[in-house]
Design brief:
heterodimer, A: six-stranded mixed β-sheet, four-stranded antiparallel β-sheet, 10 helices, 10 strands, B: about 280 residues, mainly alpha, flat, disordered C terminus
C-alpha cells in the first residue's frame, strides 16, 4: 500500500509542446499519485486541456517524457491502444457514438477492446447506467438525451473499461447550468471511491470540495500548486490572485 | 420537422410583401417565356417537316420498343455493374488513402487523382484499342464497364473521403480513448457514420455513371444509345429518335435522383421519428 502510494501513477517530466509558434506546454513536471484527485485550473488558453490530453497521447509532445505506472507512453499501434484502454477519458462535448444506442456505447469498449462476451458486458453496462441514473435511456440514441444525461453515459462508458485513472477535460463546460450538478455528483462519488482523477474544470466549488490538489496553469506553465484550501485562501502568485479575483463573486 | 423546411426557407429570410409581388411577376414572365419557347420548338418542327408521321409512326410498333428496351436493359446492366465495382473500388481507394501507412496512402492518392482526372472516353479507348494489342480479349460489355467503373471510382473515393471527414473528430478521439485500434475505429465508428452522410451524393454519382455508359457505341456494345443509333439509320429519323431517347434518359436519372431523395429523407427522419416516441 505504502509502496503504491509512493510511486506516482502518472508522471510528467520536462514536457514541452508547441502548436506552430505557440508554446502551449512549457517544461511541465507533474506527478499524480494513485487515488489522488488533481484539478487543473487556469485562464483559457493556459494549456490545461492540452496537458490533460497528452496523458493518453491524444496530443503528442515535442520533448520530455510521460510515464504511466512507471512506463513511458507507447508511441503508436497496439501498445498505445492497450495503454489508452487503462485510462478513462471524459470529453467536454461528450462524444458519445452518435450511431449507437446508449447501451451499445457503454459495451463498445468491453466487447471490442477487452473481448468480453456481449451478454456479460451488457449486464455490467446496465449496472453502470443504473449507477449514473440513466438506465431508463439504455435503448435510445445519444441525440435523444439531455447534455447532462449524455455526459453521465460518457462516464459510464469510461468506467466500463475499469480504468486505472480517469481524465476529465472540462466535463461540465458544455452543459446547461441546471445539469452541471448531476454530472459533478457522479464525479464526487467516483472520487470518494478512490478513483485517480485528473480534472480540467472551471467549477471552483468542486475543486475546493473534492480535489486533493489544485494545479494552476497560465501561459503553458504550472504557476503554482497546492491543497485546495491553501490555494483558494492564500494564492501565492500574482497570476493566481488575478485569476481568482476575476472569477470571484457575481 | 426538418423535412418540411425547404432549402430556400433554410437559406433565405422569409419574403416580405414587396418580394412576394416581385416573385409573382417573375413567375408570370417565366411562364409566358416557357410557353413561347415550346411554341417555337413545335413551329420549327413543323417548318422542317419533323412532325411528318413517317418520323413518328414507327414508335407505334412493338419491335421498335423491344429493340429500345433491349438497349435500355444493356444500359442498366452496364450502369449497375459499373456502379457496384466503382463503389467497392472507391471505398478501397479511400480506405487506403486514410491508412496510417504512408506508402499505401500516397499510392491510393495518386491512383484516385488519375482516375478522377482522366476522361472516361480516354479510358475506353485504352481498353478498346490498346489492351487488345497485347493479346487480351474481352467482351464489349467489359470494355465499356471497366473504364466507366475506373473513372467513377476516383470520384467515389473522394465522395467517401468527404463523408469520413464529416464525422466529428470527437467520435474518433472517444474511440481512441477506449483503446480501439485504427482498423476497428474505421470499421465500427467512422464508416457507419460516413456512409450515412454520403448516401445522397453516392446515388447522384450513379447518374453520372448512367450518362457515361452512352459512349458504349465506341465499343459497339448494344446499350440504349447504340440501339437508338441503329434505329435512326433504319428509319432516317434523327430528331424524333433522339427526342424519345433523351426522355428515357431523363426518366432513368430522375428516378435515380428521387431514390436518393427518398434515402436521404428516410435516414434523416429516422432519428426524428425515434425521438418523437419518447420526448425527453
Amino acid at each position: 500500500m505504502s509502496i503504491q502510494t509512493s510511486m506516482p501513477i502518472i508522471s510528467m517530466r520536462h514536457v514541452d509542446k508547441h502548436f506552430g509558434q505557440l508554446h502551449v506546454l512549457r517544461d511541465i513536471n507533474l506527478d499524480v499519485a494513485k487515488g489522488e484527485v488533481v484539478v487543473l485550473i487556469g485562464p483559457s488558453g493556459s494549456g490545461k486541456s492540452t496537458l490533460c490530453r497528452t496523458i493518453n497521447r491524444l496530443e503528442t509532445i515535442d520533448s520530455g517524457e510521460i510515464l504511466f505506472e512507471g512506463k513511458p507512453l507507447p508511441q503508436e499501434g497496439k501498445e498505445l491502444a492497450a495503454m489508452r484502454a487503462e485510462i478513462g477519458m471524459v470529453f467536454q462535448s461528450f462524444n458519445l457514438f452518435a450511431h449507437k444506442t446508449i447501451l451499445d456505447n457503454v459495451t463498445m469498449g468491453p466487447v471490442e477492446v477487452l473481448h468480453r462476451p456481449r451478454k456479460e458486458a451488457e449486464a455490467e453496462a446496465m449496472e453502470l447506467l443504473d449507477r449514473v441514473g440513466v438506465a431508463a435511456q439504455a435503448h435510445k440514441v445519444p441525440a435523444q438525451l439531455s447534455g447532462g444525461q449524455q455526459q453521465r453515459v460518457a462516464i459510464a462508458r469510461s468506467l466500463a473499461m475499469h480504468p486505472k485513472a480517469m481524465l476529465f477535460d472540462e466535463p461540465t463546460s458544455a452543459l446547461d447550468p441546471e445539469m452541471i450538478n448531476e454530472v459533478l455528483d457522479v464525479m464526487v462519488e467516483l472520487a470518494g471511491m478512490g478513483m485517480t482523477m485528473v480534472v480540467v474544470t472551471h467549477e471552483m466549488n468542486f475543486a475546493r470540495r473534492v480535489s486533493n490538489r489544485v494545479v494552476f496553469m497560465a501561459d503553458g506553465q504550472i504557476v503554482e500548486q497546492n491543497t485546495p484550501d491553501e490555494f483558494f485562501d492564500h494564492p501565492k502568485s500574482e497570476r493566481a490572485k488575478d485569476f481568482l479575483d476575476s472569477i470571484k463573486g457575481h | 420537422m426538418s423535412a418540411t423546411v425547404s432549402m430556400r426557407d433554410a437559406l433565405y429570410e422569409a419574403p416580405g410583401p414587396k418580394t412576394r409581388k416581385r416573385v409573382l411577376v417573375g413567375t408570370a414572365i417565366s411562364l409566358v417565356l416557357l410557353a413561347l419557347g415550346i411554341a417555337f420548338v413545335i413551329r420549327q418542327f413543323y417548318i422542317n417537316d419533323q412532325l411528318n408521321p413517317k418520323y413518328w409512326s414507327f414508335f407505334g410498333r412493338w419491335t421498335t420498343w423491344r429493340f429500345l428496351l433491349k438497349g435500355l436493359w444493356g444500359t442498366i446492366k452496364v450502369a449497375a455493374t459499373a456502379g457496384v465495382i466503382a463503389m467497392a473500388l472507391g471505398l478501397l481507394l479511400m480506405l487506403g488513402r486514410i491508412s496510417p501507412n504512408k506508402l499505401l496512402s500516397s499510392a491510393c492518392h495518386v491512383i484516385t487523382e488519375i482516375f478522377r482526372s482522366l476522361p472516361s472516353l480516354l479510358l475506353i479507348y485504352f481498353f478498346f484499342l490498346v489492351i487488345p494489342k497485347y493479346g487480351i480479349r474481352m467482351p464489349s460489355f467489359w470494355m465499356i464497364t471497366i473504364p466507366v467503373s475506373l473513372a467513377a471510382s476516383g470520384v467515389l473515393a473522394e465522395v467517401f473521403r468527404a463523408g469520413v471527414n464529416a464525422v466529428p473528430k470527437g467520435q474518433v478521439e472517444a474511440a481512441m480513448s477506449l483503446g480501439m485500434t485504427h482498423g476497428k475505429i474505421t470499421r465500427k465508428i467512422v464508416l457507419p457514420q460516413a456512409l450515412k452522410i454520403v448516401i445522397p451524393s453516392l446515388v447522384s454519382q450513379l447518374v453520372v455513371v448512367v450518362k457515361d455508359t452512352t459512349v458504349a457505341y465506341v465499343v459497339s456494345y448494344p446499350d440504349l444509345m447504340q440501339n437508338a443509333r441503329v434505329l435512326i439509320s433504319n428509319y432516317d429519323a434523327l430528331v424524333s429518335m433522339y427526342f424519345v431517347v433523351a426522355i428515357i434518359y431523363i426518366a432513368i436519372n430522375y428516378a435515380t435522383n428521387q431514390f436518393s431523395v427518398y434515402l436521404a429523407h428516410r435516414m434523416g427522419t429516422q432519428v426524428v421519428s425515434r425521438m418523437d416516441e419518447n420526448p425527453v
